[in-house]
Design brief:
Layout lengths: L9 H31 L6 H20 L7 H25 L1
Length: 99
């Protein structure tokens, strides 16, 4: 066995980051499946699991934004998406309250 250090180049980091993306996508959609199951069959609240998805996605977005790897108008897009999510949550809350 050689005593040479293992060099990490751009390809190594690209493959590593791609694997994280695949893992995060599987984790997120798996969590959505659990949320659907809990909601439909067990009639349980799912805000805790949704919070995990929102916090994890938000942390990744903020990290990428700080390191300037997101496209230029990403702040406007995030604000738009948050606005739509808040509007959907308020609408859902009102519909449930009226029921």
């Amino acid at each position: 066995m050689k005593n040479e250090p293992i060099l990490r180049d751009e390809r190594f980091y690209a493959v590593e980051n791609a694997s994280y993306k695949i893992g995060f996508t599987i984790f997120t959609f798996g969590l959505f499946a659990v949320i659907l199951y809990r909601s439909i069959f067990r009639h349980e609240a799912n805000w805790d699991l949704f919070a995990l998805i929102v916090i994890a996605s938000g942390a990744a977005t903020i990290y990428q934004g700080v390191h300037k790897v997101l496209p230029f108008p990403w702040k406007k897009l995030v604000l738009y998406m948050v606005g739509v999510a808040v509007l959907a949550a308020i609408t859902t809350w009102i519909l449930v309250a009226l029921k």
